[in-house]
């Protein structure tokens, strides 16, 4: 299939002022702020070394970016920077920040189950669009879910297609490379077996779980990014809905999580099943039950900074992609040790 991307070879600096503020770090490159000279509009600029893998990332993302819940790519430049061939990807600037940061930083009001289902509707509609295009994202996680702005009407969008890959329904292009962030990885990705795009549904189920209670279903009991025991529990699907924070959560929400977190991909809900589930279809009618999510996420930030620091350091070396180690920040993990200690009391 011919690429839909029209690569521009003119110097990007003819049209944009490139800032020094780093907005984020993707799998394959960093994202900085930039400004269009003619309009003074702000954009996000992703800088990638021009290699086939980067082109795949750009082309898959560009093709998908027409969806309202996927970060839009506007232009792509082929330029040389410091004698290195690079791609400069001009994307919309997501000024609202990351999903969980927004929940943590709520100035007032409580986070409700209806809000959680609204968020999951946005995430799952993006995944559904990708899966209908036979694209597996393979890195569905909160850090890749960003808001357009800080207003109550900010739109949640999926980004970072560094692990994304085209797959075929016939299985002619199976997914084999272990690409994952530890807390969101599906059991089949941990094995040496081939897997398919249903790994994205597992990750969506993990996010739904965290949205409803404030901590992930699988974590290391030793404060590590991933451990043999954690892998064993992921493969066995050993999680629960215990604790007072789950008492107020609806059975419909728990049912959706159970269907997403089935360890056998053949038995797991497809993304179309998820979009038809009553907790998703009724996302604007679900109970406005106040959840403990914000409080629990804030506990880990205010009471456990030293744990958070250690987890971030450990996770910096745990990013897995084709057996190469990638350095990437992973926030929102300090609560794990606290949850583990609370459960052992």
UniProtKB/TrEMBL annotation:
Alphabetical UniProt keywords: ATP-binding, Kinase, Nucleotide-binding, Phosphoprotein, Serine/threonine-protein kinase, Transferase
The Protein kinase domain sits at: 17-280
GO molecular function (one): protein kinase binding
Q: What is its EC number?
A: 2.7.11.1
GO biological process annotation, one example: behavioral response to nicotine
Q: Which PROSITE patterns match?
A: PROTEIN_KINASE_ATP, PROTEIN_KINASE_DOM, PROTEIN_KINASE_ST
* Name of the molecule in the record: non-specific serine/threonine protein kinase
Native source organism of the sequence:
Panagrellus redivivus (Microworm)
């Amino acid at each position: 299939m011919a690429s839909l991307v029209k690569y521009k070879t003119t110097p990007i600096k003819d049209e944009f002022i490139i800032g020094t503020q780093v907005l984020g770090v993707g799998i394959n490159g960093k994202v900085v702020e930039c400004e269009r000279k003619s309009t003074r509009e702000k954009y996000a600029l992703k800088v990638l070394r021009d290699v086939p893998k980067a082109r795949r990332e750009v082309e898959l993302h560009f093709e998908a970016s027409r969806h309202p819940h996927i970060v839009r790519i506007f232009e792509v430049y082929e330029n040389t920077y410091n004698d290195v061939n690079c791609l400069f990807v001009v994307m919309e600037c997501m000024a609202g920040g990351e999903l969980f940061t927004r929940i943590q930083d709520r100035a007032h009001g409580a986070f409700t189950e209806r809000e959680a289902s609204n968020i999951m509707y946005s995430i799952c509609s993006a995944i559904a669009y990708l899966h209908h295009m036979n694209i597996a994202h393979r890195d569905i996680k909160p850090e890749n879910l960003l808001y357009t702005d800080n207003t109550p009407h900010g739109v949640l969008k999926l980004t970072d297609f560094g692990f994304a890959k085209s797959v075929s329904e016939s299985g002619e292009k199976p997914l084999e490379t272990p690409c994952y962030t530890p807390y969101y990885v599906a059991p089949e990705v941990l094995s040496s077996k081939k897997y398919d795009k249903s790994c994205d549904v597992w990750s969506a189920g993990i996010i739904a779980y965290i949205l409803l209670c404030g901590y992930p279903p699988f974590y290391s009991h030793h404060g590590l990014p991933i451990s043999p025991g954690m892998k064993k529990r992921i493969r066995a699907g050993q999680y629960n809905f215990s604790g007072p924070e789950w008492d107020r959560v609806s059975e419909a929400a728990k049912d959706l999580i159970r269907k997403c977190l089935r360890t056998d991909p053949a038995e797991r809900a497809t993304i179309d099943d998820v979009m038809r589930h009553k907790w998703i279809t009724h996302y604007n009618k679900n109970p406005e039950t106040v959840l403990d999510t914000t409080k629990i996420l804030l506990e880990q930030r205010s009471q456990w900074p030293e744990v958070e620091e250690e987890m971030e350091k450990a996770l910096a070396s745990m990013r897995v992609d084709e057996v190469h180690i990638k350095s990437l920040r992973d926030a929102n993990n300090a609560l794990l040790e606290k949850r583990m200690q609370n459960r052992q009391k």
